[in-house]
Design a protein that fits this description.
By secondary structure, the protein is α+β, with helices and mostly antiparallel strands. The protein has 3 domains: 119 residues, Uridine Diphospho-n-acetylenolpyruvylglucosamine Reductase, domain 2, CATH 3.30.43.10; 110 residues, Uridine Diphospho-n-acetylenolpyruvylglucosamine Reductase, domain 3, CATH 3.30.465.10; 207 residues, FAD-linked oxidases, C-terminal domain (Vanillyl-alcohol Oxidase, Chain A, domain 3), CATH 3.40.462. Helix content is 30%, strand content 24%. It has 17 helices and 22 strands.
């Protein structure tokens, strides 16, 4: 495999107990302790700073960092840092800046297209930075903490993050770098809209704090900034009162337009705490089933008024599914499905996911035309489609690019290259065609997707914000080493 360390360095530096002590800028390789002591070595090593954690160069660790949930892109780093402190992140970013080594932060590795990879660079495994403190009505969480742990820490205080992604085993730093969309976005915005303060390490190796009132330009450049200007190391998050129980309504519809009509209604009148929508292939594979999923919170004693909540909705009568769940069980509802997918091998297959934001005015026509062309082979056995709206007025972070309509729909085609489905390559190509169609009607990609894009595409994506984003990149990451996997500036 290309980009691997010489075998002597791996054996000397890992298996034989010696240490990797420096980096040779000529060969672009790490230098082991034994080689550094050899007078014939062509260049003296550049000493690695003393670290609280570990700098790992063994092939297994590096190959693991070249994988992600998408299983589509494989870029092998020369080393992986498991930081023992934020100081380790500072030291190694400064070291990598000096030697022009690209750096990528990695949380749970749930990216779909190599976004958290660093070809011949350094991957920082953020999972050790996972401390969580609840302080009044806020949570202070390390970037490597999973959202499930944030919830578990907050619930004993009667609190919860207001917005959570459907899968809560993602890292805090990971979703805040992208946006963090969920079923409560129509009420509370994205996860990035509920951040009060950040601690970050810039591409210049400066550890600093930013917020709406302290270094606000950096704050704006980091949230939904795809890791381009700084690595998030800690976030202070707004919390809201947590319910004891949720009542979940799963309502079937005969068509996508019937589904979106009622979604618009319930989002605008805010009758539910949570609103999403699912589109599933029918059992015979001959069509699609349309489901509105909505939730009302309650104290576990006095149930919601079903008649009032369902009043005026035009779903198929007699086929509703209504159930009550403890709040955490609802948030963690995908856990069983994920375990099943891992057991049957689907989790390890390629996932060419497509996520886009569509303007309300174009959603019905776009979704209808897309579904008319899709078949079960286009999404795979465990694939599914999400479609749901939220209000643009709830979104306040400029780098999260969305259409100008008052109401925006997320369309997510969560493909899996299952046996019998189309190939991953075909699915990625289909994603690009869909991306072009979405842009033509005023849509944007949600950058947690497997879509091949160019720098020109990114320039068009950011539009009038592009010059400011370029300036922020130059200011905070002057060597251009951060987050190369996004391919925005490279």
């Amino acid at each position: 495999m290309e980009n691997q360390l010489p075998r002597r360095a791996v054996v000397a530096g890992i298996a034989a107990g010696a240490m990797v002590v420096g980096f040779d800028p000529v060969t672009r390789l790490w230098v082991a302790e034994a080689a550094a002591a050899d007078p014939s070595h062509p260049a003296p090593p550049n000493p690695i700073p003393r670290l609280d954690g570990d700098l790992l160069t063994d092939p297994t660790t590096r190959d693991r960092a070249a994988e992600d949930f998408g299983h589509l892109v494989h870029r092998v780093p020369v080393a992986v840092l498991r930081p023992g402190s934020v100081d380790d992140v500072v030291k190694m970013i400064r070291y990598c800046r000096r030697h022009r080594l690209p750096v990528a932060a990695r949380g749970q590795g749930h990216s779909a297209f190599g976004q958290a990879q660093a070809d011949r660079g350094l991957v920082i495994d953020m999972t050790p930075l996972s401390q969580i403190r609840i302080r009044g009505d806020v949570a202070v969480a390390g970037a490597g903490a999973r959202w499930s742990r944030v919830v578990r820490a907050a619930l004993p205080h009667g609190l919860t993050p207001p917005v959570l992604t459907d899968y809560i085993e993602l890292s805090v730093g990971g979703t805040l770098s992208v946006g963090g969309v969920g079923g409560a976005t129509h009420r509370h915005g994205m996860q990035v809209d509920n951040v009060l303060e950040l601690e970050v390490v810039t591409g210049a190796g400066e550890r600093t704090t930013c917020s709406p009132s302290r270094n606000p330009d950096l704050f704006r450049a980091v949230l939904a900034g795809l890791g381009q200007c700084a690595i998030i190391t800690r976030a202070t998050l707004r919390l809201t009162p947590a319910p004891a129980t949720v009542r979940r309504y799963q309502l079937p519809y005969p068509s996508v337009t019937a589904l979106t009509a009622d979604q618009r209604k319930v989002v605008r009148d805010k009758r539910f705490a949570y609103v999403e929508g699912q589109i599933l292939a029918t059992e015979n594979g001959g069509g699609w089933a349309f489901i509105l999923e909505a939730v009302a919170f309650f104290d576990g004693k006095t149930p919601p008024d079903d008649r009032a909540l369902l009043a005026g909705l035009d779903h198929l009568p007699g086929n509703e599914q209504i159930d009550d769940l403890p709040y955490f069980d609802f948030l963690n509802r995908l856990a069983g499905t994920v375990e099943l997918l891992k057991a049957n091998g689907e989790w390890a297959r390629p996932h060419p996911w497509w996520n886009g934001f569509l303007p309300d005015r174009a959603t019905d026509a776009f979704a209808t035309a897309t579904l008319n062309k899709l078949t079960p082979a286009d999404i795979g056995a465990s694939g599914l489609i999400l479609l749901y709206p939220f209000a643009r007025a709830r979104l306040r972070r400029p780098l999260l690019r969305v259409p100008d309509d008052d109401l925006i729909f997320l369309l997510a085609i969560l493909r899996t290259a299952s046996p019998g489905a189309k190939s991953a390559r075909e699915m990625v190509a289909a994603n690009r065609r869909l991306y072009d169609r979405a842009r033509a009607v005023g849509g944007y990609q949600y950058p947690a997707s497997a879509i091949p894009v160019t720098r020109a595409d990114w320039r068009a994506h950011y539009g009038p914000l592009w010059p400011g984003f370029v300036a922020a990149k130059r200011r905070y990451d002057p060597a251009g080493i951060l987050a190369p996997g996004q391919k925005i500036f490279t």
